[in-house]
Write a sequence for this structure.
């Protein structure tokens, strides 16, 4: 395999995990062992393992090492929606307000797994339909994956719409949960504290590199998630 060494290390480790050579729960070699095996720097090995963690193939445990992740069962794969396009398609007036924008360093291990160089664009915004709040969004964008995002006026352009157009993804993960609105969320969504909401957490990657992580909170009575799929082997 040609290309950067960390991509070859990534491909080698990925192959051993996906083939079952390394079973779920098994510790993979320590970083210093991989450094010796590949004759490279620890930073190069760390880069490859960070990409594996970003894809959910391994989990890191402080002082214990890195382990092959347990497989997860998912009920269905959902398309990534463009809220602006969905609202307009329903014949409603779309509204959008940027609440906060700041560039910062990754502050947790999960954020470091998302951003290769540690730099994140941290956004909060509110989407509405016909003047009624539709979704409260908190989004992190890895500037190493989408450096142009630093120059986009997200006071005008919704980040989700921009990313779908400008930073195509190759892999995505959705997590869906029922939650109760906390006081700050309830105020922005026009709800009572404790009201039922739907929360969608989404992460996307491009060729193993993290692109974005977003949390969208919807009032429970204003949004449906629908997935259509069949039992056939083909993908449509």
């Amino acid at each position: 395999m040609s290309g950067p060494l960390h991509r070859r290390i990534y491909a080698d480790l990925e192959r051993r995990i996906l083939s079952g050579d390394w079973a779920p729960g098994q510790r993979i070699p320590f970083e210093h062992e991989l450094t010796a095996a590949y004759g490279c720097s620890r930073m190069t090995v760390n880069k490859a393992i960070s990409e594996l963690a970003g894809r959910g193939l391994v989990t890191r445990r402080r002082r214990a090492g890195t382990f092959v992740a347990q497989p997860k069962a998912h009920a269905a794969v959902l398309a990534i929606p463009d809220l602006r396009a969905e609202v307009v398609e329903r014949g409603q007036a779309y509204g959008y307000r940027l609440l906060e924008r700041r560039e910062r360093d990754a502050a947790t291990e999960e954020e470091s797994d998302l951003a290769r160089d540690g730099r994140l664009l941290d956004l909060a915004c509110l989407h509405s339909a016909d003047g009624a709040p539709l979704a409260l969004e908190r989004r992190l964008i890895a500037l190493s994956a989408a450096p142009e995002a630093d120059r986009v006026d997200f006071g005008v352009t919704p980040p989700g719409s921009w990313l779908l157009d400008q930073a195509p993804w190759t892999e995505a993960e959705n997590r869906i949960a029922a939650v109760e609105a906390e006081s700050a969320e309830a105020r922005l969504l026009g709800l009572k504290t404790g009201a039922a909401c739907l929360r969608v957490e989404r992460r996307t990657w491009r060729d193993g590199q993290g692109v974005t992580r977003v949390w969208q909170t919807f009032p429970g009575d204003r949004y449906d998630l629908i997935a259509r799929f069949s039992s056939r082997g083909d993908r449509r």
